[in-house]
Amino acid sequence: MLLYTEKQLDKAYRIDCKARTRCNEPWVQREDFRPLYEDLLESYMIAYNEDNILGSDVPEYLLDAVNDLLESTLTLD
């Protein structure tokens, strides 16, 4: 289980919406974005956490890293 705040989800959602706007793609609904964000967080934690401690809160630095990744690499085709 991954724990994150709604504020953290909102920040990532705004990043996604900005990227979709730049690419002339339609926005997804916020609740449809939630599973995408959770999958991304889980993948990122597995890649950077050898201990696989997925049952705890997501560290703030990790959420910031995921948001930076979204901002710098999100492209929609």
The whole-angstrom Rg is 13 Å
Q: What count of domains describes the coordinates?
A: 1
Shape: globular
Give the SSE string: HHH
Helical fraction: 55-70%
Biggest β-sheet, characterized?
none
Structural class: mainly alpha
Query: In total, how many beta strands?
Result: 0
Q: Terminal Cα separation, in Å? A: 31 Å
Figure out the total of helices.
3
Q: Strand percentage, roughly?
A: under 5%
**Nearest-integer average pLDDT:** 77
Short description:
With 77 residues, the protein is mainly alpha-helical. Helices cover 65% and strands 0% of the residues. The longest helix has 19 residues, at 30-48.
What features would you describe in this structure?
The longest helix is centred in the middle third of the chain and has 19 residues, at 30-48. The protein has one domain (6-73). α1 runs parallel beside α3. It starts with 5 loop residues before the first helix and ends with a helix. 65% of the residues lie in helices and 0% in strands. It has three helices and no strands. The mean pLDDT is 77. The radius of gyration is 13 Å and the shape is globular. The protein has 77 residues and is mostly helical.
Tags for this model:
mainly alpha, 3 helices
Give the arrangement of secondary structure elements.
Elements: H1 6-22, H2 30-48, H3 60-73
Helix pairs in contact: 1-2, 1-3
